[in-house]
Give the backbone structure.
Amino acid sequence: MTTAMGAALRRIQLGNALSAFGNGFTVPYLYVYVAKVRDLGANTAGVVLAMLAVAALVVLPLTGRAIDRRGPLPVAVIGTVSAAIGALGLGLSATEPLVVASAIALGAGIAVIQPALATMIVWCSTTVTRSRAFATQFFLNNLGLGVGGLVGGLLVDESHPASFVRLFAIEAVMFLVLGAAVASVRLPRTPKVEDAVPTEERAKGAWRAMFADRRMVWLCVLGFVLFFACYGQFESGLAAYATEVTRIPPSSLGIALAANTAAIVAAQFVVLKLVERRRRSRVMALVGMVWTVAWLAAGLSGLVHGAQVVATTLLISTYALFGIGESMLSPTLAPLVADLAPASLIGQYNSAFALVKQLALAVGPAVGALMVGHGMYGAYIAMLVVCALGITALSLGLGRMLRPGQDNPHRAVAAVPAPRAEVTESVETAGSVESTGSVESTGSVAAAV
């Protein structure tokens, strides 16, 4: 069983990394491609970017229901096909309606893939191994996006639309590779998911049941603040603050973004060893403190006049600190969502949390760009410092609601007494079994500690 789970998980992770690599090809260049290469203008490019988010907001409320009824595998395959069609369509479309339609297909596909893959990872892991599984997924995603962006930058040529068609075609192929990898996975029956193959029978009122779970509602509020204060600011408010207030050149902003990815790639597994046996609520509370320092560094970068090197260093440090915080969240947040969910509603919980993230990514850039655009620099930094401190407060409050096994699965496993060896009629056999049981029990306790 463990071998089968490991093989399935490795196949899912590999396919996910390849699709992230393909996605990294196009994400940094989508605006330029639509606005300038296809000559459809800035307004159309803005609509395309908006449609990616709108499509996700539309399909996510329905995705959890589909996952829990049909299982994550067919839902993930449908998502990869939709994303591949959207990516290829963007590369081939030369008119506004076709570009917008392709963006809708791409956005919907990516949105469906995320909770479906998260549910598959839950099925292919145990409560104890889940943190490492999600940390590995996050690491491979960022590595794939980073490498894809670098390779894409070498292949792209703004004066030759064919180079962009090639990028989008590669992205489409990578989504299909993910679909093939997912389709070939044999999902095992795990201890967490008692009914690993959902039937048509499903608890009625799934949304109502989830909203009645105050721990999940609290976690969704915490998740919204987390995503609003980090991902929701990267490409809008923080980027605008960096160029308008800190006054760093675009090239330095690229270095700052690279520092974020480098911090994640370099620190992920070091951080994992430090946090995977800690209480999840305390780890998330520490993320709030790390991000408080990050936002204070960003604020100081705008106050250091006449010392551009210091200001740039402070801003790059902001992005790097965000990366450290993200690497702490990856083995914590998604596994906690899974451990809060009833077996029949894992897809619903994952989709709901993905919806919360998407809402934060929609609201965050709008608020950040509006405040910085109107010169509210001090208020902008103050708001995000308060958000970061709020993350700490919300995390500590959540910790008081969680059961010990949800807050720290490793401690719960270590607290379970080792089973006694059964006494058989044969004294020799009994002695042998008892000896073997003692060795295995010692090994289990040592591993848990």
Q: What stands out?
A: The two ends are 24 Å apart (CA to CA). Residues 190-203, 418-449 have pLDDT under 50 and may be disordered. The chain is about 80% helix and 0% strand. Residues 33 and 240 are 21 Å apart (CA to CA).
